[in-house]
Model the fold of this input.
Amino acid sequence: MPLADDVMKKLLSASEMDPDSSTGRLFAYIYETGREDLARAAREAYSLFINTNALDPLVFKSALYFEREIVGWARRLAGGSEEVVGTVTSGGTESIILAVKTARSHFEKREGRSAVGEVVAPATIHPSVKKASHYTGLRYIESRVERDTKKARVEDLKENVSNKTALIVLSAPNYPYGTIDPVKDAAEYAADKGIPVHVDACLGGYILPFFERLGIDVPEFDFRIEGVTSISMDAHKYGYAPKGVSVLLFRDAGWKKESIFVDLAWPGYPFINTAVLSSRSIAPLAAAWAIQSLLGENGYLELASHVVEARDAIYSGLSRLGFESLAPIESPILSLTHQSGESEVLKFHAVMSERGWVIGLQPRVKNLAPLNIHLTIMPVHKRIVGEFLRDAEEALSSGVPEDLRALLSQLERDPLAAALKIGETKFDAILIAKLLESLPEDLASEMAKELAVEVFKP
Ligand SMILES: Cc1ncc(COP(=O)(O)O)c(C=O)c1O
Done:
């Protein structure tokens, strides 16, 4: 048996494989406040509940307590009345799978089990909606977005709606460009037709209400709009909880009932699942509750003001360096391209990556967007604005790194050979974005699957 010390050493060295979000160098993945008091509270809450199982809330009663508290908080943020109920899930994807499954159950009741329902959503919707449609056997129908605003085109949604439509899904905001879909117009239309509308506020649900309280104009997206039937919002994004907590809210108990899976006929324990998952730890819920309790409304408001300050400072600094926003700025997301074209974006991304900044790079999309950088702004970024902008200026005034030049020329000559280098270059994000532009989608998907098998092989 290895000594405890050896195991600990290996754990520590594995943790060094990961970036440290508290440095403020990550512009995605971890929604970092930079506050050690919150990080400590989350760790302590988490470890206190490490050996728990939310499978049976009649045995583990803390699961009920935390879920009620978390759903209550989310409901207030989402402008929900007392009628609004909800379920805590393990993340945005699980909430969305559950929302789509709920719509399917509702559709089946209306149209019978043999009818195949459809999910209509704009091209900017998070892929978990397509994934959920795929898992539940619904057909996914993509509608177009406005080129300038990157918002769903209501006319196009309407054209795609039929008596087969089981659900319309919209974003508040969408991940790629950060804009909020015209939920009001679409939901009013859908309500007339009796079609449910899910709002994916996984990103915005915990922060946009505080933008509004800061006096910022936020397009309406929540339960204050009559036709909105469910909303997903992630406590593990701008709720600042560790990963493993999202909330799916339903307009009323009737919708929630459609989401629940029950099997009381099997020979084992009574099987009543409100979420997709069955056994799961209560630890993430305890940590989310601790953060929400410590922060309270004022704490969240203050953190939202840090996000706005950091976002505006970063945007104005990058604008002076020639970057331009691809869409109206309505959320903590910036998606930017450069006046001088793609090569500046690539060079910027490469040099910033070499300096340890983890920045998103989004591919060119025909008739929608050129290659662009993506920044999710978090409260911690208020501290690093100066350093970030100094590095940004130097990145743009430096030459193209030699190894990037070599990689780009190989991509042009032989994209498949270049693809084999994923995971081995300093410029994986660039390699992937460029490959997505040059390879047919089917081939790229097949290669991605092979790569995913390969990298996880023991
Ligand atoms: C808009 C939006 N919806 C849904 C999700 C899925 O959330 P998760 O990664 O927690 O499953 C994300 C994740 O980035 C997102 O940005």
Notes: Residues 91-93, 126, 128, 171, 175, 200, 202-203, 234, 246 surround pyridoxal-5'-phosphate (CB under 6 Å). The mean pLDDT is 96.
